[in-house]
Amino acid sequence: MQPSLFATALIAALPLLSIAPAAIAAPQVNIVCSMNPEWCRNAAAIYARLHDVQVNVINKPTGESYAQLQAERERPKVDVWFGGTADPHLQAAENGILEVYKSPSLPQLHPWAQAVSSASGMRTVGLYAEVLGIAYNTELLAKKKLPIPQCWKDLAKPAYKGEVQMANPASSGTSYVAIATFVQVMGEEPAFKFMQDMHQNVNNYARQGLGPVKAVAKGESALSVSFMHNASQEAEAGYPVRHAAPCEGTGYSVGAMSLVKGGPNPEQGRKFYEWALSVSGQKVAATSRSYQFPSNKATPIPEGAPSLVGVKLIPYDLAKYGASAERRRLLTRWDKEIGSKAIR
């Protein structure tokens, strides 16, 4: 996937939540959702009301969602995997646990969203896009007289000791995108040396990708490796959070959606899938304070979405870093050289 297409197109678990209309015998759809819980809940509630369908939704990080689907592959309980970074979806497609489905909505989507579908053999699709950056707490930095970070390499500076958070890439798609970004920006050996140095400054490896930016918002950490739109979301909520686009360049992720092969409610799964790709379905994101870039070309970009002016996007190789073998290799190396040294 070429970055120009993206730039042009753009310029753990919570308790099971069952949302159903009044009808007792309503059809059902089961969803595992790997993004902002508010978006998950609102999408489920709106769809249930509009389509007279009982929506059973559970929120999990992408890594945990993939593990669940893998464990249930002989007797699937989920119909739709809704959101989360595309890399685990591509891995699931490669491993045969997702349904082949060529959506009639594909021509309405941006090229980067269609590219995900092509790369997966029509087993997943791009739902939104999000750009990686550094979130920081302005008040905390001022109080501690620390400079605003400008580059990835800044996160390894001794001045930020104990002030950085990043999610655990074994469970968080956000942090796997970060590892893949570091490798592509710096080269693999320098990237792992950087992550080893940054590890000295990390106070926690959170389970979910949202965890670090939430810690920044609460003043529990000064900096985090996070998607920029999550920082914008916290700023809108009134927290002293801003974001920086790293000087070396940064990667981005395409959030995906997939139908689970052999899911218990295939017809209802397909109907929800098509609604989620429609303009009305994608507008739910902005009303849920989720400011990713929508995949449907007719969906307005949310007002709270971060500006891409001056952001140096790298040619993120989704095909390579979404492959299961490469993902497994990088995660294994990260755990051996960095994760195993973390306080558990």
| String of helices and strands | HEEHEHEHHEHEHHEHEHEEHHEHH
User: What general outline do the C-alpha atoms trace?
Assistant: globular
Unreliable stretches: 1-18
What CATH architecture label of the largest domain applies?
3-Layer(aba) Sandwich
> Helical region count?
14
* The CATH H-level homologous superfamily of the largest domain: Periplasmic binding protein-like II
Our count of domains comes out at 2
Q: Report the CATH C-level class of the largest domain.
A: Alpha Beta
Reported by name, the CATH topology of the largest domain is D-Maltodextrin-Binding Protein, domain 2
Between the first and last Cα atoms, what is the distance in angstroms? 37 Å
Structural class: alpha/beta
The pLDDT mean sits at 90
The percentage of residues in β strands lies in: 15-25%
* Count of DSSP strands: 11
Question: Largest sheet, described in full?
Answer: 11 strands, mixed
- Spatial extent as radius of gyration: 19 Å
Percent helix, as a range, is 40-55%
Characteristics:
344 residues, alpha/beta, D-Maltodextrin-Binding Protein, domain 2, eleven-stranded mixed beta sheet, 14 helices, 11 strands, 41% helix, disordered N terminus
